[in-house]
Amino acid sequence: MTIRTDDWIHLQVPELDGLPRPIIVRSQHLPKRHLFPRHSHRWNQFLYATSGTMFAAIENAWYVISPEQAYWVPTGVVHMTGALQDAEFRSLYIRDDVAAQLPRESIVFSVTPLMRALIVELTELGRAGEQSDYVERVERLILDQILRLPSESFHLPWPQSPMLLRMCQELFDNPSDERGIEAWGRELGASPRTLHRRFEREVGIGLREWRNRLRVFRAIDLLGASDNITEIALELGYSTPSAFTYMFRQRMGCAPSEWRRTIRATQ
């Protein structure tokens, strides 16, 4: 069990018999709340949203992917991807025989302007059907650039036990819920100390930190659909827009309005 996506549109995962080149680019539009259910590939995947906001889920963690980020999925890793807002994305499928030095675990990368330009260039070369040494040089440069991209640690871990799943699902559905560990302990029939220890053991972080990450996660989704910072702040449980802006700036490095302008400028 995980975050509910039963009201989303589930799409068929594209099938490929193999990769004719070391790197293949697939471009696609993914409408809001459409997803590819859990699956794996026989090659590595570099998932990059050129516009819109996407998520990727692996095991018990959810990752937000903005046009400034990409998600790396090694060969054989089971994952799920979807769109929080209408998204245009590029998937780089990379064969294992050229990926020996690339990460063997899932990572969220920050995408540099050079990497973004290389992805666009390889996409255009593929559309033109070009077969030349230049294509191979672009492919090699992309592989080199992946090794140089900075990684990010922002993700939303998810518990496994029914008791904590219930709490996290309710908070996800209603991020303005202000109940603390004591109130949740009474609700779930556990002492605050027991609940605190179980949460940290299963999730890896405390409830306060998890709630803060959840609100950033939901804020990114809401900012893609609304210009009203005040309404978003209240929906997330903040008493004032300034409190929400402070939290967002601390986590994302910019104010919500700045983040929204940056994302929309890429669309």
Give structural notes.
The chain is an alpha+beta fold and about 270 residues long. It has helices at about 115-130, 135-150, 160-175, 180-190, 190-205, 205-225, 230-235, 240-250, 255-265; strands spanning about 10, 25-30, 35-40, 45-50, 55-60, 60-65, 70-75, 80-85, 85-95, 105-110, 150, 155. It is built from 9 helices and 12 strands. Strands 1-3-8-5-6-12 form a 6-stranded mixed β-sheet. A 6-stranded antiparallel β-sheet has the order 2-9-4-7-10-11, covered by helices on one side. Helix 6 (about 205-225) packs across helix 8. It is globular, with a radius of gyration of 20 Å. The mean pLDDT is about 90.
Compose a concise summary of this entry:
The chain has 267 residues and is α+β, with helices and mostly antiparallel strands. It has helices at 113-128, 133-148, 162-173, 181-188, 192-203, 207-223, 229-235, 241-252, 256-265, and strands at residues 9-10, 23-30, 34-39, 44-51, 54-58, 61-65, 69-73, 79-83, 87-94, 107-110, 151-152, 156-157.
Q: What's the structural blueprint in terms of helices and strands?
A:
Layout: E1 9-10, E2 23-30, E3 34-39, E4 44-51, E5 54-58, E6 61-65, E7 69-73, E8 79-83, E9 87-94, E10 107-110, H1 113-128, H2 133-148, E11 151-152, E12 156-157, H3 162-173, H4 181-188, H5 192-203, H6 207-223, H7 229-235, H8 241-252, H9 256-265
